[in-house]
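Lab notes, practical 5.
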Amino acid sequence: MAYLDQLIDGYRRFRETDWARERERWSNLAEGQSPKVMVLACADSRVDPAHIFDARPGEMFVVRNIAALAPPYETSRGFHGVSAALEFAVSQLEVGEILVMGHGLCGGCAAALTGQFDDTGPGEGHFIADWVRMLNDAAAKVRARHAELDGAAFTEMEREAVKVSLANLRTFPWIAEREAVGGLKLHGAHFSVAEGRLYVLDEAEGDFRPV
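Output from the prediction step:
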């Protein structure tokens, strides 16, 4: 419980400073939320979107998972957590933009590229491998372009994963329909942990450019 004590200390600082300073905003948020953007990011502890974008409470609807992946559209019965979040953000909150943000040193993308968790059991990497298998085709292309899996290969894998997620997002009918009429914009980005720099995807060129 030692770290819980540190979390509670942090909460108390928040309560005495940030919350107290923005009492009116928190009162408004108690009535509901109306974020303009949804951010799909990785669960990695180093890449909190709220910190990276210096966002205030209520500004972003954030979903985080391994490798910041959007799955393809499926209607089978099951526990489709990311799809449910997408549905809520787009159809209920009516966000105007979705940003997929990958990042440097991503363990999920590394697992997809190396296959390090393939053939493992539950609790040993099975769920990770099963989740990132949606990157199999992209990983095969990256491996074909790199004789050695060096830093450049891993960065390319991370950026290819962003493109896969954007393609998967467009398989959702209510996303594709809104994008087609200009009611929803999709973006891709890659945050370099080592540089502290954000690279935004130019889909027309297929390149990530620093901002």
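Observations recorded by the TA: The two ends are 41 Å apart (CA to CA). The beta strands are 37-42, 60-65, 97-103, 185-192, 197-202, 207-210.
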